[in-house]
Amino acid sequence: MFDYAVVGGGIGGVLASALLSHVGKEVILFEALDYLGGCAGTFKKKDFYYNAGAATFVGAEEHMPVGKIAKYLGVDLPIKPIDPALVFYVDGKPINRWKEPEKALEEIKTAFPGIDHGSFWKRVYQVSSSMWNMWCDSLPYPSFITPIKSFLNHPKDFLSTFFCNFFSAKRVAKIYLGSFNSDYELFLSHHTLITAQAFLEDVPFSVASLGFTYPNLTNYYVVGGMGKLLESFAEKVKHVSMKTRVKAIRKKSWGFILETNRGNYEAKRVILNTTIWKAGDLIEELKDFSQRAKRRYSNLWGAFTIYMTVEGEIPKGFAHHHLILLKEPIPYTGSKSLFVSISEEQDPMLSKNNTRSITVSTHTRLELWEGLSKEEYAEKKEKATEYCLKILQEYLPFLGNLKKIQVLSGTPRTFERYTGRYRGSVGGIPITKDNFPFGYPSPLTPVEGVYLVGDTVFPGQGWPGVSMGVINLLKFIERDVKVC
Ligand SMILES: Cc1cc2nc3c(=O)[nH]c(=O)nc-3n(C[C@H](O)[C@H](O)[C@H](O)COP(=O)(O)OP(=O)(O)OC[C@H]3O[C@@H](n4cnc5c(N)ncnc54)[C@H](O)[C@@H]3O)c2cc1C
């Protein structure tokens, strides 16, 4: 009988398991695949490794969510800082997103002349720094006490950001910037798209400020692939059962029976690192709960991805991450951007034998990949790959001279097949005015003893969001865990 059974070894499941194990709980972590990390994992195909999705990493400083967890657990992370965090390409021109705010602003001013950027970005930096000052005190969520606690502990930060939760980033940008052209809007909107999964007009200014300043946090390169971070945290968990898919969970008066492909297990409590929509597939009593979530949170993204191993010369000092913005949507995905991440030359896993591992991703609507015959699907996937590779070559011409050793592509169907995500949706629930600050799913479910972690519960996606979500859950259920 375990104290906790954790279903899924994504960021949420691994961090929750590590923290609970640290305070003496008997925990078993089940992961269906042969690697940890899910969307933030690193997979192997024919001797070559690739980051499956997540490639950028922030939040490791001691006052930030992952940093606090790592310090609490005494885990050393295999990371090194990078600057610029990423390079945007707008109208073909590169814009380095430097860490230092003044330097970053100079670059933006040069790229978008004739706009009075100063007061807008000053407000952005102010709001994001206030939001980060308050993050620990804004947990647990949802709770009536939390806003009062935030106010009492950080009155200035609370008051200066409060109304920013109720206005869209686009509205606030217009107030500060006057009218701004479509290129600038595309630039701002893609900061919110990659962090909050929604565009400028839908994201509250408070949340958007965190997205605009993501490059101003310390961004890190993860040596050996994103999966190494998960492995570092998982070392703290005594019972990790890989290649173990939980098929059903039955509620009993004393706890739960988990049926897996490797037999049955018993636990007093269960933490699901599956999406909120999938909880009902595992637990009969959560069927209605998941159905309601499907209706309530239906505007979801998928990803189209390309994974490449290349051999040859990449310019020295070339940045790791590039976000190419396009005037027209990519016909097969509907997205106007491509995110490209390149492994560093010395990486012992991703860049073996003079090769480099490249992960390319772009948002796509799920419907575009549904209801296709096998032939239609294969053809669409091939054409989307060709189209994206053509764009890449245009923007990063040196790629044309590299030998392509392996090229794979993934669609929402691929994510569904491997990570089990509902319809292959990724990136969690967009953080929009409709659901933020009130109405974002909490980690608690209607079944006592069953909880959720991951990017479909507050405060959402990525390393910073999911790790905060784990701390949030544990504030409700295990007060012994004192991360913050
Ligand atoms: C293309 C792409 C790019 C991204 N880029 C970034 C980025 O640069 N930086 C960043 O911070 N974030 C990024 N993200 C977002 C980030 O990867 C996710 O928000 C985060 O990894 C989600 O974590 P999670 O805890 O919800 O778990 P998931 O990633 O959903 O993992 C869940 C795990 O549970 C397992 N599982 C599911 N069902 C079962 C079952 N029944 N039994 C056993 N195991 C099961 C799955 O195999 C999987 O390993 C990106 C995502 C994508 C798709």
Structure description:
With 484 residues, the chain is an alpha/beta fold. It is globular and about 65 Å long. It has 15 helices and 19 strands. It folds into three domains: 203 residues, FAD/NAD(P)-binding domain (3-Layer(bba) Sandwich); 115 residues, no CATH class; 122 residues, Guanine Nucleotide Dissociation Inhibitor, domain 2 (2-Layer Sandwich), CATH 3.30.519. Strands 1, 2, 10, 11, 12, 13 and 19 form a seven-stranded mixed sheet that branches. It has a seven-stranded mixed sheet with strand order 8-7-15-16-17-14-18, sandwiched between helices. It starts with a strand and ends in a 7-residue tail after the last helix. 51% of the residues are buried. The longest helix is centred in the C-terminal third of the chain and has 22 residues. It binds flavin-adenine dinucleotide. Flavin-adenine dinucleotide binds next to α1, β14 and α15. The site of flavin-adenine dinucleotide has 37 residues, from α1, β14 and α15.
Roughly how many Å apart are the termini? 29 Å
CATH topology category name of the largest domain = FAD/NAD(P)-binding domain
CATH superfamily of the largest domain: FAD/NAD(P)-binding domain
Instruction: Tell me the number of helical segments per DSSP (H or I, 4 or more residues long).
Output: 15
Tell me the number of structural domains: 3
Assign the structural class, choosing from mainly alpha, mainly beta, alpha/beta, alpha+beta, or little secondary structure.
Answer: alpha/beta
Total beta strands: 19
CATH class assignment of the largest domain: Alpha Beta
Shape from CA axes? Answer: globular
What is the percentage of strand-forming residues?
15-25%
- How many strands, what sense, and barrel or not for the largest sheet? 7 strands, mixed
| Low-pLDDT ranges | none
Helix content: 25-40%
Question: If you compute it from the alpha carbons, what radius of gyration comes out, rounded to the nearest whole angstrom?
Answer: 22 Å
